Amino acid sequence: MQAHISTIVLKGLEVFDVDLQIQVTSGIPAFTIVGLPDKTVAESKERVRAAFSALNISFPAKRVTVNLAPADLLKEGAHFDLPIAVAILCCMQILPQEEFNDYIVLGELGLDASIMPVAGVLPVAVHANRLGKGLICPASQGSEAVWGGLKSIIAVPDLLSLINHFKGVQTLPFPTAKQVQNSNSKLDLSDIKGQEAAKRALEIAAAGGHNMLMIGPPGSGKSMLAERLTTILPPLSAEEALETSMIHSVAGALKDGALDLSRPYRNPHHNASTPALVGGGKKAIPGEISLAHNGVLFLDELPEFNRSALESLRQPLENGKITVSRAEYHHTYPAHFQLIAAMNPCRCGFFGLAGQECNKAPKCAAEYQAKLSGPLLDRIDIHIFVPPVSPWDIFEKQKGESSKTVLKRVIAARKIQRERFIKMGRPELYTNAELTADLLDMASWLDNDAKNMLISSAEKLKLSARGYHRTLRLARTIADLQNESNVLKMHIAEALNYRRIKPMG
Vertex 504, ends 502 and 505: CA angle to 5°? Predict the structure, then answer.
């Protein structure tokens, strides 16, 4: 007796089809899985046996051989449990083989025959939809599969329910799509009193998708500013939300299978290792920078991060993707995030404040700031000093603009950018931070006075070519916020004010 069940194997965000073939023949009872399975797949034998026992189904006292084709592709993951069990049930004629020809099957079996969640259901659902197939998956992830656009989804809580469904004894309902409520709805930019210069810089960063570094003493509001950046960013488009959720699905970080239209906000601790930040581990899973794709990555206490971890950010900051290479894996994940970083001016945090500096100043500040490399700082468009908040600001000053008011200006500026990119024949671009050097060199919107000022300032400040182009991108965003078609001298002046050779420059 033979049976075939379609399943998959995940390699990063890529989905590869696997033909699970099973043969039950006479002979000495044995249960063998071949086709380059890893230890997790090999252990499926015990989970399948236990699930059959829980349902009082006698496991075939015959030679059972499972082949996972293609044989040269490494198979890993507990999601092979359910397709193996289904294939055996088809050979035992408990389930009809022909009913499964149009389905991709995946799920992990519990010892009580329950079907537990697995990673990567959303990208598998998108893949199944592309092939015109349905999907059989764990019940807890049915709502996740719905976002893949499938018309046929069987979300099963346990193996018995699957058997009863195909025998017509029980009908499993089509899962309902879920959407996460905005987790940042209680945050607002008006919560921060004072810090008008920092708020202005934050608005520019939001409008153009620019990276930003805030330097200031402890308690000046750097973390509060970073947390509220997502409140002035436009919500994700459906395409962006799907792409972001696929990354979270592969990483096993998608909550309740619900799609989130708010921008991701990731805030890893400064003790985070390089693999935790950029991705890695045995299976080369996505790291924090990929989980922040289409959103914000906030690195507080920037110099305290491992130097190699920070240097690994240089590639994704430049091209919006990260390649994770291991002995057995080579995966490329999207990592188009907005970096917002914060740091104290020195280890004690009070350098530059009269009467509060430690006795090692200014040496301690120079050593602390030297932890950050020039190439990394050169990739950060906005450097802003956040001064300490005075008691007058806290108790007397009125609240500033709300996030809703600032968001309207950000959306208007981004609309201008989007329309410009379409006219330039680059519809794949969305923000000025993505402008390439060739597009900047071709730009005819730079005023002559502004151009002369930029060139002379670049020579005086000894800006690199990257620094020159990033200044021009920033000036373009400032002009867009003012609905100016040309970049003027005042826009260049403000942009240059945010360019720092050193953090405390």
Answer: 55
E strands along 41-162, which residues? 63-69, 103-105, 108-109, 115-116, 134-138, 153-156
| CB distance 52 to 126 below 8 Å | no
Peptide bond into 157 cis (omega under 30): no
The predicted pLDDT at position 503 comes to: 39
Residue type, 338: Q
Residue 395 has a pLDDT of 65
pTM, whole model, 2 decimals?
0.87
- What's the confidence (pLDDT) of residue 182? 62
Q: What is the pLDDT of residues 314-327, one digit of tens each?
A: 989 988 888 887 66
CA angle 96, 101, 104 (to 5 degrees): 110
Phi-psi region of 168 (alpha: psi -120 to 50; beta: other; left: phi over 0): left
**H or E, element range at 454:** helix 448-461
Distance between CA 5 and CA 81 in Å, rounded?
A: 12
Asked if residue 42 lies in contact with residue 87, where contact means CB atoms within 8 angstroms, the answer is: no
Decide if 103 contacts 152 (C-beta within 8 A). Answer: yes
By CB atoms closer than 10 A (0-12, 13-18, 19+), residue 71 is exposed
Helix (H) or strand (E) holding 439: helix 437-442
User: In terms of Cα–Cα distance, which of 133, 140, 152, 145 is closest to 115?
Assistant: 140
SS3 state of residue 463:
coil
The upper half-sphere exposure of residue 411, i.e. CA atoms within 13 Å in the direction of its Cβ, equals 13
Select from 39, 159, 33, 62 the least CA-distant residue to 105.
159
Indicate the Cα dihedral angle 248, 253, 257, 263, nearest 10°: -60
CB 355 within 8 A of CB 388: no
Side-chain half-sphere exposure of 102, counting CA atoms within 13 A? 10
351: left (phi over 0), alpha (psi -120 to 50) or beta: beta
Q: What is the rounded CA–CA span in Å between residue 301 and residue 317?
A: 19
- Cis peptide leading into 70, omega within 30 of 0? yes
